[in-house]
Backbone:
């Protein structure tokens, strides 16, 4: 049965308008995005099939364009729209992060970093450079590595901190493996960077590891 033939109170779009997006499942939200089904399959069935194909929303977001466009109900136009929606969300969160004192909005920082990093198939190491009031000055992608290793040079990070005249920094990197637990190498690197930056009076406030829909904070774990 097509969604248009459902009772109005059960249709995803009408439920969203009546009660807000939080009441919808991921499949229902994706169905609202797709709008229409194909002959023999409702739009909700298409949405569920896409999420099952890629193991959830994060998998769909991270999937290569060619693989997404093979899905029923998708194609170049829908892929472009999906990327546009994601970029709008990233930019909106980035604006929030820039406006606020980052220590007062740690959840927004983590939400922004998840959107920015979780979908990447390769490992990247980024730094959020902050002023003396802990407001964002700049975000730099410092190094890009393989799925298992990233080379990070403390001297280069110190140079970037001085170039931005930063008073503090938050580091972040992603684990494409999907596991947010830091490795021993991650812990040693963080301590090395903290020691190097202390020499130029730049504080390391946190190091956040992003993996899929989860993240881990070094500061919350007491690892700084």
Residues:
């Amino acid at each position: 049965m097509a969604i248009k033939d459902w009772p109005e109170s059960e249709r995803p779009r009408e439920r969203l308008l009546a009660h807000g997006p939080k009441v919808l499942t991921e499949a229902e939200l994706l169905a609202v995005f797709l709008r229409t089904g194909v002959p023999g399959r409702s739009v909700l069935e298409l949405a569920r099939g896409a999420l099952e194909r890629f193991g959830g929303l994060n998998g769909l977001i991270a999937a290569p364009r060619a693989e997404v466009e093979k899905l029923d109900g998708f194609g170049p136009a829908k892929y472009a729209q999906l990327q546009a929606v994601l970029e709008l969300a990233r930019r909106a969160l980035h604006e929030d992060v820039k406006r606020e004192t980052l220590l007062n909005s740690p959840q927004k920082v983590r939400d922004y970093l998840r959107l920015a990093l979780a979908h990447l198939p390769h490992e990247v190491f980024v730094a959020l450079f902050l002023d003396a009031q802990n407001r964002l000055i700049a975000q730099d992608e410092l190094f890009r590595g393989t799925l298992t290793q990233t080379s990070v040079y403390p001297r280069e990070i110190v140079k970037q901190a001085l170039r931005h005249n930063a008073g503090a920094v938050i580091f972040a990197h992603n684990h494409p493996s999907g596991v947010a637990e830091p490795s021993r190498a991650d812990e040693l690197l963080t301590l090395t960077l903290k020691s190097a930056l202390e020499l130029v009076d730049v504080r390391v406030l946190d190091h956040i590891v992003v993996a899929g829909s989860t993240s881990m904070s070094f500061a919350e774990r007491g690892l700084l």
